[in-house]
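for the recovery benchmark. tokens below, seq after
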């Protein structure tokens, strides 16, 4: 490789710090995901540097050139350089041992060799070292071969890497989905035998990893891999329980079990929103406890009356386990609670109720869940299997557009003075009802000017 030129601001800062450390007599390399993404032509949004310099040496050299620094974990050798382009993590070469809680090493020893440092890393693709000054790439764990073969492999003994930190199992699954790679067979087998260890990881760390998975374009691939590896049943038992729940209908939900419906709904979520992804996974989770066989028009089939309330209870349990922030949990709960309003919204819901619903701050997210839910319901139409149509989604989008376009006109024309003058209603609740009715007509686009507003008000007064 040619010496890195540092064309972008953050990369230029990373190059400057590497030069600074090397001029101070130390080794300094860009390391891990920074190098991996550079080789893959992916955008670099952070820079990590591995160095033979001790934390005190790093702080001294940064201070010398006026770069502020922060102790980001001195015990683990990490100092944060606060550059104008963004933070750069600088970590001393180290080796670790005696992981008592499958996360924290009880013993950390600083070393002078990047070879020793590479042996403690989780995955081979994260064990690349690049000297950006000389343009020299170092690959002590065979990452280049795995990148060419599109394989995710643990460094060294996969069982040992997992025993050190069980969250590495989820990271391996995420990188498979993120990069479109396969999990190397020995790494796959090691995870299968140790999947239960994920229970020993804190809910916050699991959620942080899940959030990264659930914003991927192929998030469903990541979740299916978690299931295949045996981890999903410990992380989301309410979801894996849906594998045994079926609608038993001959005309709708022909995609398979409720679990398959949830996976398909997850796939249909095109927006990188973890909240929508969690809702897609859990919106029908309550069907696992509410199903009853009932006689329907097609014959006997399962009915899941009230499942949305049961789903919300399961989301609350998930939020408690994984320590969701309050606002995030509220969003997921509201759109899950309201996902069954999709049918009434597209059929017989009053305009007043539609406008009220559409005025909710989470309505745009609800529309996305409605769309995913409809598209993941495979049904028989005219003798053919096909996905449901997102009718409520289309209607909701149109209503939102009308609300945005017509709100100013609604505020202008639905004032009390015009209503009293046209309807001759003097005061009381009827004024409020007339105002609300006119506002809704304007917002929906049915009333477009003052002449139409007067006509509507006269008609309203005759039926009041």
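predicted aa per position
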């Amino acid at each position: 490789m040619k010496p890195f030129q540092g064309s972008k601001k953050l990369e230029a800062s990373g190059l400057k710090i590497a030069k600074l450390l090397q001029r101070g007599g130390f080794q300094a390399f860009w390391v891990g995901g920074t190098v991996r993404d550079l080789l893959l032509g992916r955008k670099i949004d952070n820079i990590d540097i591995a160095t033979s310099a001790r934390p005190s040496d790093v702080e001294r050299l940064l201070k010398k050139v006026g770069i502020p620094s922060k102790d980001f974990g001195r015990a683990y050798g990490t100092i944060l350089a606060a550059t104008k382009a963004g933070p750069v993590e600088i970590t001393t070469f180290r080796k670790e041992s005696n992981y008592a809680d499958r996360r924290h090493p009880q013993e950390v020893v600083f070393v002078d060799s990047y070879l020793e440092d590479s042996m403690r890393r989780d995955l081979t693709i994260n064990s690349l070292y690049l000297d950006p000054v000389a343009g020299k790439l170092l690959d002590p764990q065979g990452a280049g071969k795995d990148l060419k073969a599109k394989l995710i492999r643990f460094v060294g003994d996969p069982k040992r890497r997992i025993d050190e930190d069980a969250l590495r199992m989820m990271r391996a699954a995420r990188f498979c989905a993120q990069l479109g790679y396969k999990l190397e067979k020995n790494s796959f087998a090691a995870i299968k035998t140790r999947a239960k260890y994920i229970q020993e990881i804190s809910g916050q760390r699991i959620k942080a990893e899940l959030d990264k998975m659930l914003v991927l374009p192929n998030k469903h691939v990541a979740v299916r891999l978690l299931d295949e590896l045996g981890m999903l049943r410990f992380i989301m038992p309410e979801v894996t329980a849906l594998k045994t729940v079926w609608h038993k209908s001959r005309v709708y939900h022909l995609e398979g079990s409720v679990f398959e419906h949830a996976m398909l709904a997850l796939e249909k979520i095109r927006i990188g929103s973890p909240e929508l992804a969690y809702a897609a996974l859990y919106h029908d989770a309550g069907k696992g406890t509410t199903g009853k066989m009932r006689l329907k028009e097609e014959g006997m089939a399962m009915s899941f009356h009230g499942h949305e309330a049961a789903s919300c209870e399961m989301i609350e349990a998930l939020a408690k386990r994984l320590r969701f922030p309050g606002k995030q949990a509220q969003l997921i709960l509201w759109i899950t609670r309201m996902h069954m309003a999709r049918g009434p919204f597209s059929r017989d819901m009053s305009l007043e109720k539609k406008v009220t619903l559409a005025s909710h701050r989470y309505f745009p997210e609800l529309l996305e869940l409605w769309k995913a839910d409809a598209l993941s319901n495979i049904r028989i139409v005219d003798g053919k299997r096909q996905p449901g149509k997102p009718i409520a989604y289309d209607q909701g989008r149109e209503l939102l557009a009308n609300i945005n376009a017509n709100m100013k006109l609604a505020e202008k024309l639905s004032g009390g003075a015009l209503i009293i003058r046209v309807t001759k209603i003097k005061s009381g609740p009827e004024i409020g009802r007339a105002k609300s009715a006119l506002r809704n007509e304007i917002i929906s686009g049915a009333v477009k000017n003052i002449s139409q507003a007067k006509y509507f008000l006269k008609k309203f007064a005759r039926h009041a």
